[in-house]
Amino acid sequence: MKQKIPPSEVTPEELYNSRRQFMKSTLQVTAASLFVTSCNKKSSSLADITATTATIGVPQGNSLTDELGNALTDYQNIIEYTNFYEFATSKIGPAKLTKNFKTDPWSIQVGGLINNPQTFDLDSIRKEFAQEERIYRMRCVEGWSMVIPWLGFPLHKLLNIVGPKSDAKFVRFETIFDSDQMPGQKSPIYPWPYVEGLRMDEAMHDLTILATGIYGKDLTPQNGAPIRLVVPWKYGFKSIKSLVKIDLVETMPVSLWMAVRPDEYGFYANVNPNVHHPRWSQSTERRIGGSDRVNSMLLNGYQDEVASLYQGMDLTVNY
Fold it and tell me: Quick one: pLDDT band at residue 195, thresholds 50, 70, 90?
């Protein structure tokens, strides 16, 4: 029988969710120019990067905001206030406990219902997709919110290489399991390793990315180094960190939070201010770095891009 999880150990309202040189010439800027203002949201060097990396069909803002005019979150806030239960359940714990987390060498195994199963080492991924990388200024929401300039590339670029079979309906993602490095994984409360999933059409969308950096630098361990998923129209826990395994499957994967609290965390986890968590409202969010709460937006404001994925679905039932 599964152990009942005490409320104190269940996801709180404010859940949030490598030594690399840029290979793309348009991203080759020095750390000095990037961090001339300590990577804060007024950094003019980010404009130099994003000016050359626009992608047709992907929402664009200017260098200091997302496309809705929301200011980028300060770099220090992004790396100091994180959710990574594999290390700690507090928001400040992961930044302290990940300092010695080893991310090199690193590989991702891709298998399941595909024509060309492969294991990609991180260096080969970087080389393969160097020309696909760009800056994505995306909003991330989980009761609190940030606007983060991710460096990444669309997940479908990787999936197209392995050749999904026609009976692949979902994508299952898995985080590294290494309790020696990740003390939170010693907890018996959660069914480690961390697992998440997407429907195939969600996974193939241009806004579903594999991220390897923030603010022009490599991901920090507490932010999911060395490579993580980012799905901006869903709550942050869907954007699984420190990926080591991707499988294409026929049936819907059971994610970690579905396993421990299916009444609170459904498969889709689309941002929806009209569907409240059983223990709190999701109609507003608090921007990290500020004191005011703002109204949450359906699909996190990405309705124009992704609403067609859910045409005919009741998003209050498919939560």
Answer: very high
Residue range of the domain that includes 40: 13-308
**What stretch of H or E contains 197?**
strand 195-199
Instruction: Please give the structure tokens belonging to residue 33.
Output: 């120019």
C-beta of residue 236 within 8 angstroms of C-beta of residue 142: yes
pLDDT mean over 220-245: 98
Q: How far apart are CA 230 and CA 135, in angstroms?
A: 12
Contact 148, 72 (CB under 8 A): yes
Evaluate whether residue 283 is within a structural domain: yes
Proportion of the chain above pLDDT 90, given as a percent: 77
Phi, psi (5° rounding) for residue 196? -140, 170
Cβ count within 10 A of residue 88 = 20
Query: Is 3 a domain residue?
Result: no
β-bridge mates for residue 277, sequence order = 280
What does the alpha-carbon distance between residue 68 and residue 139 come to, in Å, rounded to a whole number?
Answer: 10
Q: In 10 A of CB 174, how many CB atoms? A: 22
Confidence at residue 175, expressed as pLDDT on a 0 to 100 scale: 98
> What is the secondary structure of 231-268 as a DSSP string?
-TTB-GGGS--SEEEEEEESS----HHHHH-TTT--S-
- CA neighbor of 239 nearest in space, from 210, 264, 280: 210
% of the chain surpassing 70 pLDDT:
82
8 A C-beta contact, residue 170 and residue 199? yes
Structure tokens at 1: 């029988």
CATH of the domain at 102: 3.90.420.10
279 in a domain, yes or no? yes
With respect to residue 318, please indicate whether it lies within any of the assigned structural domains.
Answer: no
Give 300's DSSP letter. Answer: G
Number of structural domains (the chain) is 1
